[in-house]
Fold each of these.
Amino acid sequence: SSTEGLPELRKSILERLAKDGNNGELENIIISSGSQQGLDLVGKVFLSPGDIAVVELPSYLAALNAFHSYGGELVGIPMDEEGMQMDILEEKLTQLKNEGKKVKFIYTISNFQNPAGVTMSLARRKKIIEIAHKFNVFIVEDNPYEKLRFEGEPIPSIYSLEKNNSVISLGTFSKILCPGLRMAWILGNKEIIRKMAMLKQATDLCTSILGQLIAYEYCKLGKLEENIKSNIQIYKKKRDVMLDALEKYFPKEATWTKPQGGFFVLATLPEYIDTGEMFKEA
């Protein structure tokens, strides 16, 4: 297999992605050994010591560790119920530019964010593209939970809305097929994908051929959609149980997110509760 992955699997993924407006050719996609390798490759390609990655606050810890490992400095932007706050993002990017800092990309988990469970609104997605163009930075859109929507209308991905080829999109089979398969993909600018392939080759030559064939056959047989439907039923039930338990047992001053999909609910507790002590008890 080539480092980029089996052509038939890449074509199959591209066909699925195109249904949601996420278009690309074979040279725009590479198969990675799980999304974590994708995040590692993002760090490798983009970051040198002292470069800046702008991230949501809070964000996925393993992504932050991947960016940190290449000497990247992390700048966090707070979120509200519509996702990353764009006025603060623009202010921070202006400040960093004035300080002569090199911002390489903005990292966002646009759907059912880890750990907040928040989904970025359509208006914010359009705004983040506008801001990224203004400051000439890439957007890294991590999208592992997109298909695990329990209710509400799907929102077009940032990748599908952006027309200047400056969004790198990460997707995975881990949440829709099987986490142990370690099978994911990166979609984006062909020059970036080419660089990633060169760096990946030095790490593991290529992603497991057996795993790629399993994922391909599963897609070809049309079983992926029924598996997604089954996962949605399972995780929606878990979400409902969690929200009911929070309502029943948490103090009235506590607040929490009410996600329309994905895996995560983020609770904010009143000041009088010491979460450090609570963590030890748990």
Amino acid sequence: MRVTHKTINNNLLHNLNSSLKRLNRYNEQLASGRRISLPSDNPVEAENIMRLKTSLSQNDQYLKNVEDGISWLDATDSALDQLTGILHRVRELAIAGSNESLEESAREALATEIKELFDSVIQVANTTHGGKYLFAGQKTAGASQPFTNAWGSEPPFVRQDGITGEIVIEIGAGSQVAINVVDEDTDGLFTKALETIAKTYDDIMNGNIDSLSNETLKYYDETMDLILTARSETGAKQNRLEVTKERLKDLDFNFNRLLSSVQAVDVAETIMHLKAEENIYQLALAVGARIIRPTLVDFLG
């Protein structure tokens, strides 16, 4: 086959252009810190990077859900702790009110405090966290509070309808957990607590000594059982989410490490390749200038 000056010129230009592309790629890698800028650079590695980024994004969302869930449960436990303290005080007042020798003024003082404790329970029942009601089921937002004080009416409170839904968060692939305490329609802990306090108030005001010593304390015990169950379940979920949080943080670290190993450029190695390619390019340029000086000068011009 006859080799013409045009063939030599074209081959030289092709080789010089290929070398320039490699030089540009090495410079881009050093500037960005990444081995792959475009999928076409390495389709297989690019697919692995996309898969790792997707997994990392999902893991970050799970981690955010878990942290939000822990925060919600912490606020819930704090509210239930307040409720526990209020009920303990109600029991003390019920026992004090069961004293037959108690004067009327003393009974009225006990009743006044119990009324204030009733108000406090309403406040706890309407506790918000991040602008959302803790004990309103899925009705966490809006102007309507879960419980409204209706002292003097029967019953002495209004419980909003439809506040029994669970708030469920996703903490992993196919793994979910409900983070809220649901106040059931007739057997909810706040419903029971408010009924217990209202009964204690009536018994003290009416001097129902037997009821204060027996039935009212039974109401109290039933209410405390509900609260203790709720706190136990809340604590178990807190522990589960704390363990899950640590696992997700480990996964996050591993995903980032894998992504870095696949994506990050080896600076020393890339500089070595860059220097070698620069030498190759300069040598090819010099050789080409001697072989086809006029054509090369035209090309450079």
Amino acid sequence: LKRDVAGDASESALLKCIELSCGSVRAMRDRNKKVAEIPFNSTNKYQLSVHETEDPNDNRYLLVMKGAPERILDRCSTIVIQGKEQPMDEELKEAFQSAYMELGGLGERVLGFCHLLLPEDQYPKGFAFDTDDVNFQTDNLCFVGLMSMIDPPRAAVPDAVGKCRSAGIKVIMVTGDHPITAKAIAKGVGIISEGNE
């Protein structure tokens, strides 16, 4: 992908994946105008945007959300499986948890995704979405999936950790990642060893 990308490594990876699998993101954005956005922050751990859709026969707004998988799942009451929306039950939540733990345990950064077509009777065309004092639905959403990305540590990190240890310096890792992901990364760079927490 030969283009400048604004955003962090996760945003860049997402953009590259979508461009390679679905085509031009710019064209997709042009066809589905964004009308509201709540940017990601470390408190909410999600990013949300509301869009007009390209379907001329459907005036509903599309709400899309991405973020920390557990935060996304908490806002969902349904899930898409093989193209069909169905109620989220305990068995599906356990399957989600298992997939999340497996991917996080590999040291991969995992994001969750959900969406909702907002009811036209409550959110008619021209609705004034307020993202400061949220005046639209942000729960009972539909979970659409997980995406994991490899965000490898810089090559020099294991050596730097080793040098710190040999100098008697205790190395501490501070991260916003899920604990299982953080543990896998810490093992990978030598901050903790097998059997240590």
